[in-house]
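Quick one:
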Amino acid sequence: MLKPDPGKSGLSRLVDRRVFIGTFASVLAGIVFWHHERSEPEKAQAAPTEQAKMVRIAEFSNHGAAEGIVVVPKIVKSEEEWRKQLSRAAFAVTRKAGTEIAFTGAYWNLHEKGLFRCICCDTALFSSETKYESGTGWPSFWAPLAKENIQELADHLFGMTRTAVSCRRCDAHLGHVFDDGPRPTGLRYCMNSVALRFIKPA
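Output:
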């Protein structure tokens, strides 16, 4: 077990602990991903033909301006269709609940102003206005753009109890939310860069 360095501040020890836990989770996720990729590919499942389920989401312009609540069809595709649309890494994270390795994603250290949309369906999810440096190696936000655009579910993978976050419109796995974030919410939405698409205001 790692002993805390008495010379470090409480914040430094907290960041070290987050990095350790995050790296450990990344290694475990990598093992699962490696095993999955070596396994025989699953047969593509056909998308349901019944009437599409409708969901309510909040729309936003690329400048982050709210454009109201709309009711739209839930996006459902076969595994084969998602594989064709997404990169290998994005598919592993969004469709198989994987986790990218800490400090490797495109957005963990991004400081530009803009909007983060779902890589699978383009739903607006997060803004640079709520992004902050968590020290974990993943892009972190203290709030989503709109609660309507995400859903949170209990996740017991790896023997841990966490809260998984996914896109409400297409069920893409995005990351997890923790209760160790900054004010005003006290939450840390720890997302995977490959699950997001960053948009700069025009």
